[in-house]
């Protein structure tokens, strides 16, 4: 997939709050997402955990990319990300802040141009930078007949 191609992820409800998540790329195994108890049954990561995993994964990959760009050969990287959901002013659960820690397998002295790498690697991370800037999400809800219940109905003129 190139950077300018659309990314498609399909979710199908299995039961209660559990969804089978399928990715648009051949060879990627489906994933089960589920809400935590008492809503769900904790059979898979919930959306908050998937969001944090995406941020930590992207940051780690971006750091590896930046290290390798300067001809370094880093060992295995380990990342941990934590966040505490909090209620906003309207009483809705949100993740206001996350703390990511990436650990290199070797000392900093083992890498060339490390200061420059650390200054720029986050800019390579599409997920973290998108989350930081905010993602405008347009939502459409359709019924079983394809009628738009929520969202842009302008294309339904005459129906």
Spans with pLDDT under 50 lasting ≥5 residues? Answer: none
Our Rg estimate from Cα atoms comes to: 20 Å
Whole-number tally of structural domains:
2
Look at the structure and give the CATH class of the largest domain. Alpha Beta
> What is the fold-level CATH name, i.e. the topology of the largest domain?
GMP Synthetase, Chain A, domain 3
Bin the strand percentage.
15-25%
Strand order of the largest sheet: 1-2-3
Task: Supply the helix-strand structural class.
Answer: alpha+beta
Helix and strand run: EEEHEEEEHHEE
Tell the overall outline. elongated
DSSP strand count:
9
End-to-end CA span: 37 Å
CATH architecture assignment name of the largest domain: 2-Layer Sandwich
Number of helices: 3
Structural notes for this entry:
- Helix content is 24%, strand content 23%.
- With 159 residues, the chain is α+β, with helices and mostly antiparallel strands.
- The chain has two domains: 45 residues; 87 residues, K homology (KH) domain (GMP Synthetase, Chain A, domain 3).
- The strands form four sheets. It has a three-stranded antiparallel β-sheet with strand order 1-2-3, with no helix packed on it.
- The radius of gyration is 20 Å and the shape is elongated.
- The mean pLDDT is 93.
């Amino acid at each position: 997939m190139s950077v300018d191609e659309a990314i498609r992820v399909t979710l199908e409800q299995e039961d209660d709050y559990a969804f089978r998540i399928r990715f648009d790329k051949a060879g990627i195994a489906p994933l089960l997402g589920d809400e935590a108890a008492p809503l769900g049954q904790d059979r898979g990561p919930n959306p908050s955990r998937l969001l944090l995993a995406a941020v930590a994964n992207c940051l780690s990959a971006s750091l590896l990319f930046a290290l390798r760009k300067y001809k370094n050969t880093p060992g295995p990287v380990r990342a941990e990300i934590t966040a505490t959901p909090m209620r906003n002013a309207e009483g809705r659960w949100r993740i206001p802040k996350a703390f990511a820690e990436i650990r290199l397998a070797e000392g900093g002295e083992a890498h060339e141009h490390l200061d420059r790498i650390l200054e720029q690697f986050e800019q390579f991370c599409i997920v973290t930078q998108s989350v930081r800037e905010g993602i405008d999400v347009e939502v459409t809800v359709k019924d079983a007949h394809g009628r738009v219940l929520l969202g842009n109905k302008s294309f339904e003129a005459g129906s």
